[in-house]
């Protein structure tokens, strides 16, 4: 699309510049030629006047008379009344010329052989063509800038749509100063919020329904097992066993539905963790530069370690945004894989999380610095959707750890980094693990 816009803009602009250049060349040619001819006509009138005043008592005008009145760098030709042709001045006869008839003298022809007209045409042509080329260069620069300004927002919206397709349900909040694109971005963000809310509600309802079905099914299975062991009636035992088999099949169906709702590996895109971190660095580094802060990352995992791009990107983006809004100093992202688990840490050098909200930092509508209180809650929901969990492992400065769901018990993670020991590592199911 960018090439099409560039070609169209350049085509129109270059065509206009070429037409303008040709018009200027033609106008200069006509104007310069007219000026030279007017000047030459004036000179011819002056020569005619001088020749008319020459004393003719001794006969017709001679070549010596012409030589006295011919202008510099001119050729003067005179055909007398008796038919004699006289020439004075330059030997060449090329150049603009005018003719005048002088009574009692003859027909005079004055030729400008100085080359002034040609030089003026050459200088004007070079000047106009140079200006035209400069205008073409300016047009190219403006066309490239315009095409980039138009296509970059479209590319960003396309990348945002790809992230939505991978499960990263975060609004972009980017606006471009172009009314049509801004309306499109508003619509996409509104749709993202609505879809995220619907999916979250659907997930909660499906989980609640599954658990609510499991409890009566389990109780029913126990009663049927008792009937299946009834000693006095074989028919009752047979019917009870058949019913028990049906209940077990129904329980397996519920389990399969529950697993299917929680597992999205077949529908979500997985990419290397290194790429996810690099994408977030590229997305957030301009904002940190504008705030005069540093954003650094260290990925100490194998290149083959892959994660679900959407949810992991959403969690990491929320943690980085939280550090940008509420933290200070350098924000560091660290990805590690100790033992059989993987986690991502995000921490900065700010004042940390206030004590009154530390225990509820992942709850909705809870914020310690005038925020909306939705970012970390949404991040926690995204982490849980892939079997992971976010924990606040240190309050001051704030230090968050995102446990990816590659083992059931993310608390068995080995030692803490130096100077970041947790006071209660077994409480990771709560949102706050420890404090310093």
Cα-based radius of gyration, to the nearest Å: 45 Å
Largest sheet: 5 strands, mixed
How many helices does DSSP assign? 9
Strand order of the largest sheet: 6-8-9-11-10
Tell me the number of strands: 11
State the separation between the terminal residues, measured CA to CA: 54 Å
The proportion of residues forming helix, as a percent range, comes to 40-55%
Structural class: alpha+beta
How would you sum up the global shape? Answer: rod-shaped
Oligomer: single chain
Following the backbone from N to C, one meets helices and strands in this order, namely: HHEEEEHHHEHEEHEEHHEE
Percentage of β-strand residues:
5-15%
Write the layout of secondary structure elements.
Blueprint: H1 2-52, H2 63-69, E1 74-80, E2 85-89, E3 97-102, E4 106-112, H3 116-165, H4 179-228, H5 234-262, E5 270-272, H6 273-290, E6 295-300, E7 306-308, H7 309-326, E8 331-336, E9 343-347, H8 355-358, H9 375-385, E10 389-394, E11 399-403
Parallel strand pairs: 6-8
Antiparallel strand pairs: 1-2, 1-4, 3-4, 5-7, 8-9, 9-11, 10-11
Explain what you see.
- The protein is of the alpha+beta class.
- 55% of the residues lie in helices and 14% in strands.
- It contains nine helices and eleven strands.
- The strands form three sheets. A five-stranded mixed sheet has the order 6-8-9-11-10, covered by helices on one side. Strands 2-1-4-3 form a four-stranded antiparallel sheet, covered by helices on one side.
- Strand 1 and strand 2 form a beta hairpin.
- Helix 4 runs antiparallel to helix 5.
- The radius of gyration is 45 Å and the shape is rod-shaped.
- The chain starts with a helix and ends in a 33-residue tail after the last strand.
- The C terminus is likely disordered.
């Amino acid at each position: 699309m960018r090439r099409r816009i560039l070609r169209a803009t350049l085509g129109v602009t270059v065509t206009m510049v070429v037409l303008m250049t040709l018009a200027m060349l033609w106008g200069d040619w006509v104007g310069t030629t007219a000026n030279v001819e007017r000047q030459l006509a004036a000179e011819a009138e002056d020569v005619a006047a001088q020749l008319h005043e020459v004393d003719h008592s001794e006969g017709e005008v001679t070549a010596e008379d012409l030589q006295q009145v011919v202008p510099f760098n001119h050729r003067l030709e005179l055909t007398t009344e008796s038919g004699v042709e006289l020439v004075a001045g330059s030997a060449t006869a090329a150049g603009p010329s005018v003719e005048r008839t002088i009574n009692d003298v003859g027909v005079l022809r004055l030729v400008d052989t100085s080359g002034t007209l040609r030089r003026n045409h050459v200088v004007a042509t070079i000047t106009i063509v140079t200006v035209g080329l400069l205008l073409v260069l300016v047009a190219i620069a403006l066309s490239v800038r315009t095409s980039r300004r138009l296509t970059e927002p479209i590319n960003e919206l396309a990348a945002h749509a790809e992230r939505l397709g991978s499960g990263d349900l975060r609004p972009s909040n980017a606006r471009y100063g172009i009314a049509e694109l801004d309306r499109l971005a508003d619509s996409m963000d509104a749709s993202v919020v609505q879809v995220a809310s619907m999916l979250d509600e659907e997930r909660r309802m499906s989980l609640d329904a599954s658990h609510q079905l499991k409890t009566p099914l389990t109780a029913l299975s126990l009663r049927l097992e008792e009937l299946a062991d009834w000693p006095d009636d074989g028919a009752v035992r047979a019917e009870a066993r058949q019913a028990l088999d049906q209940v077990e099949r129904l329980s397996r169906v519920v389990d399969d539905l529950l697993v299917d709702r929680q597992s999205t590996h077949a529908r979500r895109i997985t990419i290397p963790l290194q790429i996810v971190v690099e994408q977030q660095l590229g997305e957030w580094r301009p904002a940190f530069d504008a705030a005069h802060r540093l954003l650094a990352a260290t990925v100490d995992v194998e290149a083959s370690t892959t994660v679900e791009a959407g949810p992991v990107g959403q969690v990491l983006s929320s943690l980085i945004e939280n550090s940008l809004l509420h933290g200070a100093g350098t924000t560091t992202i660290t990805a590690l894989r100790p033992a059989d688990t993987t986690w991502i840490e995000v921490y900065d050098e700010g004042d940390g999380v206030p004590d009154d909200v530390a225990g509820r930092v992942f709850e909705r509508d809870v914020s310690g610095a005038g925020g909306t209180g939705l970012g970390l809650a949404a991040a926690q929901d995204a982490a849980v959707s892939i079997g992971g969990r976010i924990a606040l492992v240190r309050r001051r400065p704030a230090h968050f750890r995102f446990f990816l769901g590659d083992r059931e018990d993310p608390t068995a993670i080995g030692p803490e980094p130096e100077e970041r020991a947790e006071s209660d590592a077994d409480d990771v199911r709560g949102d706050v693990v420890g404090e310093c």
